[in-house]
Amino acid sequence: MMDDELLPSTAGATVADAAYHILSGSFRSLSLALLAFSPANKSLEHIKTIPAFGPHQYLALNAAKDVVYTTSWATPPILSSWALQRSNGSRVEDVKHMNTVQITATSSYIDIPPPYNFVYSAGGPTGEVHALASDGSFGEKVQQFLFVPEDELEKADKSRIALRYGLHGVEFSSTGYGFIPVLGTSTIEMYRRDPTTGRLEHIFSSPSPRGPSSHDGPRHVKVHPNGKILYCVTEHTNYLDTYEIKDGTLHHISSHSLLPSNLTNKPSHSSSSVDPHLVSDFRGGTLMLTPSSPAFPAPIALFTTTRGATPAQKGWTSVFRLDRDGHVIPTSPPSDAPDQTPLQDVADDLVAVRFETPTSSGKANAVNIRSKDDDSSSFWILLTDDDRLADKSGAVRVLEWNGWGPDQDLRIVAEWPSGSEVEGPEKGELEFTGASHAIWLD
């Protein structure tokens, strides 16, 4: 299945009149930024800056869309919950701190899987499970799971540096499995989750498809809604790996470059004594599936990002086409070949749409996606930028993508800041620079 069968004949974008609200974290500021995007005007408005508790906020929104959970690089390590205050049940007017809990080690990602009664975080040597209180804030800690022997935990690095070689993310499938990528071991750890207690049980360790000495650095994973396909971005070698989830294990299906074919896809130094995080020209970042909707219950694409290791290299966003079962397929079928063309026989540059970011993106290039409307195969994409060049223009960008039609290119339609100076303390606001991760709130 590779052509217009993926898209209803009635599919088409409509422009929403109402604004969509956005919350962004920062790598270099102790604050969050509340923004609003106008699809009609294609503009980003800064609503307010909210004092927070440390740099590097990765954000997750609950199912009710009234509470946001954030990580932090604060010392000691913490997680925080934030209530969204809406007017008329719609417009987000303010973000209020609910509570903060201390955790053992700095966390990178955070997730709230169905049935939405537990929050999961992971980073460095540990991961933690917290129950949710009745108001949606953090409740009691119900589990701490370790990636180091218990007798080594006290001396283990628990700072953000440990994210380079320890646990880096946490995601869940609709079938009750949890997945944690581990940069240093080049493995994806698989868990079984008890939906009643929230606890995780380790069941499988999936090695890199390129071998134990690959230094891949699995960084971020997502699971298809069908619960059968897992996608992983590697930070050091810049691959998108796809796996079949079957019988409590992972089976590698395919690998695709996050970069155009004219750019290197591997670290420039293969020695095991050299940290590959420091020698690669590019660093694989995040990935996200296009959201499901009544018109499109299965994601039609997977977005990935990679950052430049230094300001000299610009980052990249790639869009991979998916069939209904979640497998990567060519962006368009070859005119002289049947739909069954083996994917390994198709050049990588024909498997993805590429977009070069305006800067290296620094430590960011995190992506978040929303449909233009329920009947649309077109999307608005949030992309964050931590490069110093973005401090005055483009820390948060909105991109437009019109799906798998004749116009498949991504384009920037709005950015904040837009060239003027970011509001600073002299204007009664906290400074906000170095966007880390931004999410749609509506």
From TrEMBL:
Q: Which InterPro entries match?
A: Cycloisomerase_2 (IPR050282), Lactonase_7-beta_prop (IPR019405), N2O_reductase_N (IPR011045), WD40/YVTN_repeat-like_dom_sf (IPR015943)
List GO molecular-function terms, semicolon-separated.
6-phosphogluconolactonase activity
The superkingdom listed in its UniProt entry is Eukaryota
Q: Which SUPFAM superfamilies match?
A: Calcium-dependent phosphotriesterase, Nitrous oxide reductase, N-terminal domain
Enumerate the Gene3D superfamilies for this protein. Answer: YVTN repeat-like/Quinoprotein amine dehydrogenase
Task: Tell me the protein family, please.
Answer: Belongs to the cycloisomerase 2 family.
PANTHER family in UniProt: 6-PHOSPHOGLUCONOLACTONASE-RELATED, CYCLASE, PUTATIVE (AFU_ORTHOLOGUE AFUA_6G11580)-RELATED
Q: What is this protein called?
A: Isomerase YbhE
**Species name:** Candolleomyces eurysporus
